[in-house]
Amino acid sequence: MTGSGATAPYLRIERLTKLFGNFAALKDISLEIFPGEFVCFLGPSGCGKTTLLRAIAGLDIQTSGRIFQGGKEVSNLPSSQRDFGIVFQSYALFPNLTVSANVGYGLVSRGMARVEIETRVNDLLRLVGLPESGRKYPAQLSGGQQQRVALARALALSPGMLLLDEPLSALDARVRAHLRVEIRRLHQRLAITTIMVTHDQEEALTMADRIVVMNHGVIEQVGTPTEVYRRPASAFVADFVGTTNFLPAIVAGPGHVRFGAINLACDLDVQFGPGKDVTLAIRPEDVVVRNIAPSTPNTFTARVAEIEFLGSFCRVGLAVNGGDPALLADFSINAVRDLGIAEGKEMPIALPPDRLRVFPRQSSLP
């Protein structure tokens, strides 16, 4: 991946809006994507991620705003005049053509010589791991193999950008996990600027250089997988990406909030004045149960209300402030065994101040 540093963006989107009647599918979107990046548009159904991809491809022209690719404005160009290859969720292969004919379809349309087409197609089939499948028809291939053919076809014309519209969502979990790795390796080998639309947070976290989290037609956050996961910019991002505890709290003073009867130290933005209702967020894996000393900040006693065995770890429901389980914690199997963690046990836990995020209180959250 090429970082943003002094490199000019390969794709620049300026104040893009897309209206369908009175409904705004995209609202004043601005974004830069750099050469060689793998970027995921992530969000729930209806958030605008596919609409944004289709606007980039020229399949749905935006209502307002501009798009630049490789320094050239393409805002109103038809898709046929834009430099990209695209892979759809449905594969969109021609059932009456062989695999080789599918991959080489665009090359034939371009008028390339037959020998050159054959060489290029064979190279691409080797690249996607299907060197012996050229004479087969799509119906003779598995879903994962068909997706590889669609990928090879998208790459046939050596496009400047690759667009992937939920390419793995129709596959079973095992094939999906395998193709994630293969697509990522292929991207690293070709260094082609790639945008993938997905609603699957695991796909985005494992594949992307940067993630664009979208909601209701706007961008909530742009960042690396680590930034989005560890430092979510909003309660929506914290809730959508990964599992998060949301705790109702009140600002008690500079750098402190009160969660029920418990006083907690945390980083507070200046917007949060004393007495303001806020929502605390902390990941279950960030709840500390080992090596707690008297000086450890944000330590209090919790009761184990329930334990769910999840293989390599246990998800533990903790009751605090004398109420029902209010906090989920993920503890390793070793910790559960070594500390004798069992239902009904009371024990000290700690919430590290640097792992607590504070957001404005929202009606949809605690």
How would you sum up this structure, described in words?
The chain is built from ten helices and 19 strands. By secondary structure, it is of the alpha+beta class. The strands form four sheets. A six-stranded mixed β-sheet has the order 6-7-8-3-9-10, sandwiched between helices. The protein has a five-stranded antiparallel β-sheet with strand order 13-12-11-14-19. Strands 2-1-4-5 form a four-stranded antiparallel β-sheet, covered by helices on one side. Helix 4 (114-127) crosses helix 5 (143-155).
Question: Quick one: how many beta strands?
Answer: 19
What's the Cα radius of gyration?
25 Å
Which term fits the overall shape?
Answer: elongated
How are the strands of the biggest sheet laid out side by side?
6-7-8-3-9-10
Query: Helical content, roughly?
Result: 10-25%
Order of helices and strands: EEEHEEEHHHHEHEHEEHHEEEEEEEHEE
Q: Given the structure, what is the number of helices?
A: 10
By secondary-structure content and strand pairing, the structural class works out as: alpha+beta
Q: Please, what is the average pLDDT?
A: 93
Largest pleated sheet: 6 strands, mixed
Question: What tags apply to this protein structure?
Answer:
five-stranded antiparallel beta sheet; 32% strand; six-stranded mixed beta sheet; alpha+beta
Reconstruct the topology from this structure.
Blueprint lengths: L10 E10 L2 E11 L4 E5 L6 H9 L6 E6 L2 E2 L11 E3 L11 H5 L1 H5 L4 H14 L15 H13 L5 E5 L7 H18 L2 E6 L2 H7 L2 E6 L2 E6 L1 H6 L4 H6 L4 E9 L2 E4 L2 E4 L11 E6 L16 E11 L3 E7 L5 E8 H6 L7 E5 L6 E4 L6
Parallel strand pairs: 3-8, 3-9, 6-7, 7-8
Antiparallel strand pairs: 1-2, 1-4, 4-5, 9-10, 11-12, 11-14, 12-13, 14-19, 15-16, 15-18, 16-17
